[in-house]
Amino acid sequence: MKKIAFILFSVFILSCVKDEKVAEQKQDSKLLLSVVNENSSVEIIDNIFRIEVENWEELNTLEVFLKRFKKASSNEILSNALELETLAKSLIDSIKPELFNIPSLNARINIFYNETLRLSDMSAIPAIKAEEVFEETEKIIKSFSAINAKINTILIKKRFEEEITVDVKYIGLDSTRIDSVSKRTINERMQQKLDEKNQKQNE
Prior knowledge:
It is built from 8 helices and 2 strands. By secondary structure, it is mainly alpha-helical. The protein has a two-stranded antiparallel ribbon. Helix 5 (about 80-95) runs antiparallel to helix 6 (about 105-120), helix 6 packs antiparallel against helix 7 and helix 7 runs parallel beside helix 8. The longest helix is centred in the C-terminal third of the chain and has 33 residues, at about 130-160.
């Protein structure tokens, strides 16, 4: 009888210790969710190109919104997750400037939206860990930075094309591999030069 009592007492003690450890772990996890973390900065659009996107409100709103994630706790990030998801959806549905309405940029916007959906899902998980939130936040920042990086690339290319003054057939460009936007820009430039030449000849 004493042995049975001893065994039951031991099981009770071990159970209490285990419950206490679980409670401590939960408490530590909650505390970590309140710790402020410094995340990466969002890559921004170059100032020289800012005029090209000044009317794209959805993009500009997101860039400002994501600045609050630079220094934030997991709790703060999770509390903004649903609003971020909504803003990301607005970016997908937005009327994009023609220059940016291309598959490669749209793909980056979709990736960004998917990452915001994952963060939004995390906000509904009671046992979520701070490190998981921070990892997802970094993915969101990187995916939005990829959007801005692509926009910078598109605008650098546009500026280069606008400065072309030589016929592509003389500089070895394979016109069959140039996209429609590039071809149009080059053709417009060539036509403009031709018109100017004809005008001078007629004067």
